[in-house]
Design goal:
Helix content: 25-40%
Keywords: ATP-binding, Nucleotide-binding
Number of strands: 8
GO molecular function: ATP binding; ATP hydrolysis activity; transmembrane transporter activity
Pfam family, one: ABC_tran
Distance between the termini: 36 Å
Protein name: ATP-binding cassette domain-containing protein
Radius of gyration: 19 Å
Length: about 230
C-alpha cells in the first residue's frame, strides 16, 4: 500500500517538509523506513513529542485520494449543524450542485444515512444542532462520523478517542475496523493498541524504535518506551 524509505521531516513555518534542512527548522522524523501493506491494522504509539502525528499526516499526504483522515484538529465548522459537518465528508462523491442543494435543504436519504451513522457512534443529538453546542467527546464523534462518511478503504486516525472513556473508545474502534480494509491510527491507550491491532509501530524522539506484530511484542519494551514520558 505504501513504502517510506529514509524519511526525514522538519517543522518550519516558512519551509516545506520536502525541503532540505534549513536554519531554524526542527527535525521531527529521522531516517524512517517502513512498508505498510493493504489490509493491515496498524497502531502507532510512543511518548509525547515522538513524531506520531507528523508521521500520520505524511502518510495522509501520500494516500489522500484513497484515505479518510480523522485528525486531532477535527476541522469542524462551529456554526454549522451536525448534519452539515458530517455530510462534508461526502462532497467529493457528488456534483457541486447536488452538494449545494443538499446543504441548503437536506435530502431525506442523506438525513437517514447520517442519522443511522450517528446512532452507531452513540451520538444521540438532533442532526440540526450546531457543533459549537456539543461536548468535547461529542465533537470527536462528529469528526469521526465525517471521516467514516467518506467511505474510503483506508482510515487514518490521530488519537480520535482522546476525549472518550476506554469502553466507548473500544466500541468505536470496532466500527472503524469493520468498515475499512486498512487502518493506521495513532493510539494513546497502549492496552487498546495491543489488543485491537495486528501490528504496532512505536516512535521515540522521531525515530522508529519498534515495528512488530503484536504477538511478538515484549511488554517490557513498551514500558521502557514510556518511562521518559512519565518522568517528564
Amino acid at each position: 500500500m505504501i513504502t517510506i524509505d529514509n524519511l526525514n521531516l522538519y517543522h518550519q513555518k516558512t519551509a516545506s517538509n520536502n525541503t532540505a534542512k534549513r536554519k531554524g527548522a526542527t527535525q521531527v522524523i529521522f531516517d524512517l523506513s517502513l512498508t505498510i501493506n493493504k489490509g493491515e491494522k496498524v497502531a502507532i504509539i510512543g511518548p509525547s513529542g515522538a513524531g506520531k502525528s507528523s508521521l500520520l499526516h505524511h502518510l495522509y499526504q501520500r494516500l489522500q485520494t484513497s484515505a479518510a483522515l480523522c485528525s486531532q484538529r477535527q476541522g469542524l465548522v462551529d456554526n454549522l449543524s451536525i448534519f452539515h459537518n458530517i455530510f462534508m465528508g461526502a462532497l467529493a462523491r457528488h456534483h457541486w450542485l447536488f452538494n449545494l442543494i443538499n446543504l441548503m435543504r437536506p435530502f431525506k436519504q442523506d438525513l437517514r444515512n447520517i442519522g443511522l451513522l450517528c446512532q452507531q457512534l452513540e451520538l444521540d443529538e438532533p442532526l440540526a444542532k450546531s457543533v459549537d453546542k456539543l461536548s468535547g467527546g461529542q465533537r470527536q464523534r462528529v469528526a469521526l462520523a465525517r471521516a467514516l462518511y467518506q467511505q474510503q478503504d483506508i482510515f487514518l486516525g490521530d488519537e480520535p478517542f482522546s476525549a472518550l472513556d476506554p469502553l466507548m473508545a473500544s466500541r468505536l474502534l470496532e466500527i472503524i475496523l469493520a468498515r475499512h480494509k486498512s487502518v493506521i491510527m495513532v493510539v494513546h491507550d497502549r492496552a487498546l493498541a495491543m489488543s485491537a491491532f495486528d501490528r504496532v509501530i512505536a516512535l521515540d524522539k522521531g525515530r522508529l524504535v519498534l515495528d512488530s506484530k503484536k504477538q511478538s511484542i515484549n511488554q517490557q519494551q513498551i514500558s521502557k518506551l514510556y518511562q521518559t514520558d512519565a518522568v517528564a
